[in-house]
Amino acid sequence: MPEEKPFCKRITAAFLKENLEEYKDWVRNPLYVCKKCGRVARRSRDLCKPVLLDGSGEPSGTDE
Predict the structure, then answer these.
(1) How far apart are the C-alpha atoms of 20 and 44, rounded to whole Å?
(2) What does pTM read for this prediction?
């Protein structure tokens, strides 16, 4: 699946039904949470409105 869109836009029930194991890898050990929908991810670019889970604020743009 192309990575242009954040999880908030591309993860659907149909996607999860067919790709649950892949999705679990993407969200394992999350660093960010989306302020809009509550999804979590390791990379800020995978979310629409990312905020660091540690409470330090907005992402710096240097995540993997």
Answers:
(1) 20
(2) 0.70
Give me the domain span that covers residue 38.
7-52
- Domain annotation covers residue 29: yes
Burial class of residue 28, CB neighbours in 10 A (0-12, 13-18, 19+): exposed
pLDDT tens digits for range 32-48 = 999 999 999 999 999 99
Q: Tell whether 35 is covered by a domain.
A: yes
- Count of structural domains, the chain: 1
Q: What is the pLDDT of residues 4-14, one digit of tens each?
A: 788 888 889 99
Q: What is the DSSP letter of 32?
A: E
Cβ atoms of residues 40 and 14 within 8 Å: no
Nearest-angstrom CA–CA distance, 29 and 23? 12
